[in-house]
From TrEMBL:
Keyword terms of this UniProt record: Amino-acid biosynthesis, Histidine biosynthesis, Hydrolase
Enzyme Commission no: 3.1.3.15
Pathway membership: Amino-acid biosynthesis; L-histidine biosynthesis; L-histidine from 5-phospho-alpha-D-ribose 1-diphosphate: step 8/9
Keyword Hydrolase attached: yes
Family under the similarity heading: Belongs to the PHP hydrolase family. HisK subfamily.
InterPro entries: Histidinol_P_phosphatase_HisJ (IPR010140), PHP_dom (IPR004013), Pol/His_phosphatase_N (IPR003141), Pol/histidinol_Pase-like (IPR016195)
GO BP terms, alphabetized: L-histidine biosynthetic process
Catalytic reaction(s) noted: L-histidinol phosphate + H2O = L-histidinol + phosphate
Name this polypeptide is given: Histidinol-phosphatase
SUPFAM superfamilies: PHP domain-like (SSF89550)
Gene Ontology MF terms in the entry: histidinol-phosphatase activity
Annotated ranges, domain Polymerase/histidinol phosphatase N-terminal: 3-97
Length: 278
């Protein structure tokens, strides 16, 4: 069983990977199941219902998923390739405190198999370009990031897993902030996640970002396990062909070394457990 549960296509504003090409490439490399999880980040990106408001970076639209087309194409590909690969319908919700209502409305419109709850911005300021971190101390931006996630898991429940939980370290230009300094708030987050029957993802993009740990870190994974957490998904965060399926098997081995014995796929928002030995 080889699955990739974090995939972006040309429906995401930062990817040009044609959805059907991704499906065929997945079949070619031996993936049994994939979940396509294109980006939605309300406020910082426009929706296609008002195309005149969409901004462009050159020819690239800075926009959310074209929901109707996205859903229709996945359903078509599910039927076309049903004998070759299992394709699940997902989405990555890049949520902030003030966008919870918008995401709840979106969730209610479609039948999803899987939702990644991620935090890509705080106060509409991005991490990747340092807009959020600017004029804050390392302590301030790390704590504010986790406080945002804590608020989200307290107030939003229609998700499957938390995406790349400690991704703030990916964009920390100072150094990696010590785990012990944020352990208390991460513990609070994980207790709610576990109590709500949700999980966390292992995001294998840590390898291509040259991080010296997993994402989330082994410290977070040990804490999650010690608190009773069992639901894990594994995803490459693919945006182009060379990312697809990367380090999935290696990650399974890392999880076994940490004492986990299973990972999950999803159907209709319900986790399905698989042995890490499969």
């Amino acid at each position: 069983m080889l699955c990739d549960y974090h995939l972006h296509t040309n429906y995401s504003d930062d990817s040009s990977y044609i959805m059907e090409d991704l499906v065929n490439d997945s079949i070619d490399i031996g993936l049994n199941e994939i979940c396509i999880t294109d980006h939605v980040d309300y406020v910082v990106k426009s929706d296609w219902d008002k195309p005149e408001k969409i901004q462009y970076d050159g020819e690239r639209p800075i926009a959310n998923v074209d929901y109707t087309k996205f859903y229709k194409e996945i359903k078509s590909l599910q039927e076309k390739y049903k004998d070759q690969i299992n394709i699940k319908i997902g989405m990555e919700f890049g949520m902030q405190k003030h966008t919870i209502g918008k995401f709840q409305k979106l969730f209610n419109q479609y039948n999803f198999d899987f939702i990644i709850l991620s935090c890509h911005q705080v106060d509409d300021k991005e991490f990747w370009n340092q807009a959020f971190q600017s004029e804050k101390s390392q302590k301030e931006y790390n704590e504010l990031y986790y406080q945002e996630i804590l608020h989200l898991v307290k107030h939003y429940k229609n998700y499957s897993v938390l995406g790349h939980l400690d991704m703030i370290k990916r964009y920390d230009e100072i150094s990696e902030y010590p785990f012990e300094k944020v352990k208390t708030i991460i513990t609070d987050i994980l207790k709610i996640v576990i109590s709500d029957g949700k999980g966390i993802e292992i995001n294998t993009s840590s390898h291509r970002y040259d991080l010296n740990d997993l994402t989330p870190s082994k410290d977070i994974l040990r804490l999650y396990k010690n608190l009773g957490g069992k639901i894990l998904t594994i995803g490459s965060d693919t945006h182009k062909k060379e990312h697809l399926g990367a380090y999935i098997e290696a990650t399974k081995n890392e999880l076994k070394q940490l004492g986990f014995n299973s990972y999950c796929t999803y159907e209709n928002m319900i986790p399905i457990y698989h042995s890490l030995d499969d």
